[in-house]
Amino acid sequence: MRTTPELLPVLSRGKHRTPRRGACFMEYASYLAGETWSDHPSCTDPALASLARMVNDCTSDAARGRLVTLIPSVIGLTGEGTITGIRLAARAASAALPIANEGRQRALAAGLLRSDELLAGFGESPSSASRSLIRCALDETPGASSWAAEFLTAAGALNHRSIPLMCDAIIRTAVVGIADACVQDPDDRLRELLSLAIEDCAGEVDVHIGTAHRELQPTP
């Protein structure tokens, strides 16, 4: 943070009333975007914003400053609605599942199985990036995956109105699971997760723009 001008807020944990008191990742984004000061700005998809807030709060004080360079990248990434949340939940849970403790592994495996089911319902092929991540993570944790499959069978169908809440719960569990994991580099893993999630959302924008461009081309 030594390279940040003094008039800019300092990145820190939690919610802040004004920039003078510091800023979490998304408050900083609202500041840079020229929006009203908020940790829930309209410039960023809600699921991506949730992931950013969690990564901000679960990163150590010593490493949090390294997140600053990612902040401008979330501005304008408003997502594609429900499916963006599912994809981001899948990204987060896939990163956390292999290293989380047993209790969180079971919850994350259940979340991944449900996410895979939902993505299939949206028409995503088994070879899509999100579903491939899910499959690899579940293959690494057969015990948790088996438990989760039995649990979801007993739980029955999901109420689709609860999908955003489900995605948020998966993201929160995943980030805490990484932060608390017995690994040497939790801060690096959290930053990488957020960076990859931003790339995922930026990729959605590129696909959308490319599709719109093709639709505007004159018919030969």
Q: How many β-strands, per DSSP?
A: 0
Q: What fraction of residues sit in β-strands?
A: under 5%
Average pLDDT, all residues:
90
SSE order, one letter for each helix or strand: HHHHHHHHH
- Biggest sheet statistics: none
Count of individual domains: 2
Low-confidence region ranges: 1-6, 208-220
Helix content: 55-70%
Basic shape: globular
> How far is the first residue's CA from the last residue's CA?
55 Å
- Figure out the total of helices: 9
Structural class of the secondary structure composition?
mainly alpha
Rg estimate, integer Å: 18 Å
Summarize the topology.
Elements: H1 25-33, H2 46-58, H3 71-74, H4 82-96, H5 102-121, H6 129-140, H7 142-155, H8 163-180, H9 186-216
Summarize this structure briefly.
By secondary structure, the protein is mostly helical. The protein contains 9 helices and no strands. It has helices at residues 25-33, 46-58, 71-74, 82-96, 102-121, 129-140, 142-155, 163-180, 186-216.
Describe this structure in words.
The chain has 220 residues and is an all-alpha fold. It has 2 domains: 19-74, no CATH class; 82-180, no CATH class. It contains 9 helices and no strands. Helix 2 (46-58) packs parallel to helix 8 (163-180) and helix 8 (163-180) packs antiparallel against helix 9 (186-216). Mean pLDDT is 90; it is low at 1-6 and 208-220.
